[in-house]
Task: structure prediction
Amino acid sequence: MASASSTNPSAGGGTIDSREAAHFGGMAQDWWDPKGSSAMLHKLNPVRLRYIRAAVDLHWDGDDTSFTPLAGKTVLDVGCGAGLLAEPLARLGGTVTGLDAAAENIAVAAAHAAQAGLSITYRAHGIEDEGGRYDLVTCLEVIEHVRDPAGFIRGLAGALADGGLLIMSTPNRTPLSRLALIGLAEGTGRIPRGTHDWDKFLTPDELTALLVDAGLTVTDITGLAFSPAKGFDLSSSTALDYLLTARRAAATSGH
Result:
């Protein structure tokens, strides 16, 4: 449901799926239109931000009344699209960098941030080409669009500072997600056709295993559900989609 991001195509190989990057790059111009091709992301954003805020406060023992819980923290949003998540993360006080595989998305993101008076660094390359390490890494609705999920997770883990926090979301590979996201959402045009490949969806157990293999500890998995009455909301059911929090252990001093 969000944009693909991975490695630079000119590097050869890597995790990028060039068809996915082209698909999302083609949506760049109306990314910020709440009734456009990214309408589903606009509906998802409030509940995703609520989850991120709670995870950040818990991880850093923050004050839940603060308007800037990310003050003093560096943030990397991977697969940032045109900046729909990066901008609120900047407003929460973070020093934000956004990565995306589609240069069209980065151009729109940079222009929109400038109009909003926000200082966000945007780069059109993938996670394997990112040399920095960040306190918070977000990667929402992206991993289902990459070519090599294990390599992509290693890239995310490598971008995480000691004691850092990783927050991800992705559809689960279930009959419900096939029906809802592909049969209904794409079938009725609520999401552009061809956005999802159900066979590339990861279950919570599969994603957890990749994160553990990359040296991270998964601390929370929360479902993301949809109902006609409430819209998207956090849920105990992961059958449709889920959010996940993982952390890198803080560095210990040796002798």
Q: What stands out?
A: The first strand starts at residue 74 and ends at 78. Residues 9-247 form a domain with the Rossmann fold fold (CATH 3.40.50.150). The chain has one domain: 9-247. The chain is about 30% helix and 20% strand.
